């Protein structure tokens, strides 16, 4: 009878723990949104070493909050993160699992499961609360934040696949790397040159001191009004080691039309055809003309307009010219983002 009572009590404890964990995972939380600064913290890992988020500025950081050490779903999730650890290291990504249990619990968890990434002890759930995912029971919701090198939340994964979470996070990071933003390095790509159809890489031989990417049009009157200015600024700065590349993403403007326009305008730089507006989507370019300036490491340092007036006689702010001078001098542009004004890029219907 005593044995039966103990058995029933053990089952009740298991059910209670399962219900508690279900409550932790299932209750809707409201995580911090993408674009918000990631709140700083200082938390000890499984070995008692304190990690401070602000010390990792310049790296991508993965913060995988989970409810409880050594429970089935949390075990699968952390096994998967450890399995992908070498790939994270290749990408200069720091990975942390975070839950409310203490360092001793995490040390036992790591030893039992062979976990190699750092697990942080957020006792009391104070950090989870800062990130908007602390639940009434003190646990954290199962949510992963990807923090960019500038210390901002770049992605929030709130539908975690515990068995394949390492791969899930890597895919999210790859997607982020494709997206062009101020302060982020642009991955090289190639497009056909409208002049001869030959493939041209954005970054060329990689020896340029800066790269200017210009989304332009053959028909937009605003873009056409800037043809002479684009030609002139290219002539001035190409001699200083700046590479200029124009891109046409308009679905209705085809290679032959682009070729004729480039010849008539006397462009010295290649004009590339972006079929299916794939690159325009990656840059999130909306209008023509719209400009991006990359430094020698292909990091975006300026995004916006060429200047502040379609009428060359009314220009008061030479934004592209000033941005290039700053970048070549090794400085940040005074106005790194301005509003580009022009005709909407005509995209394919998807």
- Give me the CATH fold name of the largest domain: Glutaredoxin
What are the low-pLDDT stretches, counting only 5+ consecutive residues below 50? 1-28
* Largest sheet strand order: 5-4-3-6-7
Derived from helix and strand composition plus strand pairing, the structural class reads alpha/beta
Q: What count of structural domains?
A: 2
The CATH superfamily of the largest domain is Glutaredoxin
Query: Helicity, in percent?
Result: 25-40%
Biggest sheet character: 5 strands, mixed
Q: Care to count the β-strands? A: 16
Total helix count?
A: 11
Order of helices and strands: HEEEHHEHEHEEHEEEHHEHEHEEEHE
Strand % is: 15-25%
CATH architecture verdict of the largest domain:
3-Layer(aba) Sandwich
Global morphology? elongated
Q: Could you tell me the radius of gyration in angstroms? A: 26 Å
Residue-averaged pLDDT: 91
CATH class division of the largest domain: Alpha Beta
Q: What separation lies between the terminal Cα atoms?
A: 68 Å
Please tell me about this protein's structure.
This protein is of the alpha/beta class and 350 residues long. It has two domains: 29-178, Glutaredoxin (3-Layer(aba) Sandwich); 190-344, Glutaredoxin (3-Layer(aba) Sandwich), CATH 3.40.30.10. It is 33% helix and 20% strand. It contains eleven helices and 16 strands. A five-stranded mixed sheet has the order 5-4-3-6-7. A five-stranded mixed sheet has the order 12-11-10-14-15. It is elongated and about 70 Å long.
């Amino acid at each position: 009878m005593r044995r039966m009572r103990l058995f029933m009590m053990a089952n009740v404890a298991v059910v209670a723990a399962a219900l508690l964990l279900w409550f932790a995972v299932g209750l809707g939380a409201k995580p911090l949104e993408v674009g918000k600064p990631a709140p700083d913290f200082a938390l000890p890992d499984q070995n008692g070493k304190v990690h401070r988020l602000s010390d990792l500025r310049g790296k991508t950081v993965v913060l995988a909050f989970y409810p409880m050490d050594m429970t089935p779903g949390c075990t699968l999730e952390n096994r998967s993160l450890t399995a992908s650890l070498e790939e994270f290291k290749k990408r200069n990504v720091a990975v942390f699992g975070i839950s409310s249990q203490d360092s001793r619990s995490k040390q036992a968890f790591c030893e039992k499961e062979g976990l190699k990434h750092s697990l942080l002890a957020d006792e009391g759930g104070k950090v989870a609360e800062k990130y908007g995912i602390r639940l009434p029971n003190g646990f954290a919701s199962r949510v992963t934040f990807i923090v960019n090198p500038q210390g901002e939340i770049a992605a929030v994964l709130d539908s975690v696949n515990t068995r394949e979470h390492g791969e899930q996070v890597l895919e999210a990071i790859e997607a982020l790397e494709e997206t062009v933003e101020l302060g982020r390095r642009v991955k090289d790509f190639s497009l056909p040159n409208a002049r001869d159809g030959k493939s041209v890489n954005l970054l060329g031989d990689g020896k340029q001191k800066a790269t200017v990417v210009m989304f332009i049009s053959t028909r937009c009157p605003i873009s056409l009004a800037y043809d002479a200015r684009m030609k002139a600024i290219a002539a001035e700065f190409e001699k200083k080691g700046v590479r200029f590349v124009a891109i046409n993403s308009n679905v209705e403007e085809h290679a032959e039309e682009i070729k004729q326009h480039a010849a008539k305008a006397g462009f010295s730089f290649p004009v590339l055809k972006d079929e299916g507006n794939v690159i325009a989507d990656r840059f999130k370019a909306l209008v023509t003309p719209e400009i991006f300036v990359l430094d020698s490491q292909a990091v975006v340092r300026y995004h916006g307009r060429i200047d502040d007036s379609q009428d060359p006689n009314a220009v008061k702010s030479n934004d592209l010219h000033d941005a290039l001078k700053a970048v070549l001098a090794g400085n940040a542009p005074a106005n790194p983002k301005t509003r580009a004004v022009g005709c909407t890029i005509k995209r394919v219907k998807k």
